[in-house]
Amino acid sequence: MRKKKLNNKQLQEKQKQEDKRFRKFMIIRFSILFLFLGVILVFVTYWCDTKYAFRRYTLYGKRISGNLICMNSNRLTYHDSEEFTLNDGIFYACSENCRKTLTIHYDEIAYVADAYSGDTILKCDAIIGLKERGEPGLAYFMNAQNFKIYYEVEKSIDNQVICK
């Protein structure tokens, strides 16, 4: 079988169509590339905020490590906290200013009420959790039993609200 020879006009038309397809293909590829780079740039720029938001939701109902909190402000922190020893206890502060405040006002700040039982406990001896899902506020517990009961009660309250 012989190939049909194309005249000059037909060749130009075919070349235009191929150029259109190629341009369309390149526009799509570069659009995807720029979108991907934009997402990466936003994620890298807001990495600290992303980790913080992730922690606020995923750490609810779990024990929180001391290096993620500030015992002066009773909040989850964006970054790792400093560990320091004060009156034979290990405390965590997010900055030098919080550390000084905790040292100066030790009697007012170092003691807190257990979130479940209401007993007064020393923060450095407490088990730490989040008060509410998605919020940075902390709850301190005297023991693992109070910790467990607190979150079971909160879970049952959440289930009742959802069912209504």
Write the layout of secondary structure elements.
Elements: H1 8-45, H2 47-58, E1 69-70, E2 75-76, E3 82-86, E4 89-93, H3 96-104, H4 106-109, E5 111-113, E6 120-122, E7 127-130, E8 138-141, H5 144-163
Antiparallel strand pairs: 1-2, 3-4, 5-6, 7-8
What key attributes describe this structure?
8 strands; two-stranded antiparallel ribbon; 5 helices; 164 residues
Protein architecture, described:
It is a single chain. This protein has 164 residues and is of the alpha+beta class. It has one domain (49-163). 51% of the residues lie in helices and 17% in strands. It has five helices and eight strands, in the order H-H-E-E-E-E-H-H-E-E-E-E-H. It has helices at residues 8-45, 47-58, 96-104, 106-109, 144-163; strands at residues 69-70, 75-76, 82-86, 89-93, 111-113, 120-122, 127-130, 138-141. The strands form four sheets. It has a two-stranded antiparallel ribbon with strand order 1-2. Strands 3-4 form a two-stranded antiparallel sheet. The longest helix is centred in the first third of the chain and has 38 residues, at 8-45. The model has no long low-confidence stretch (mean pLDDT 87).
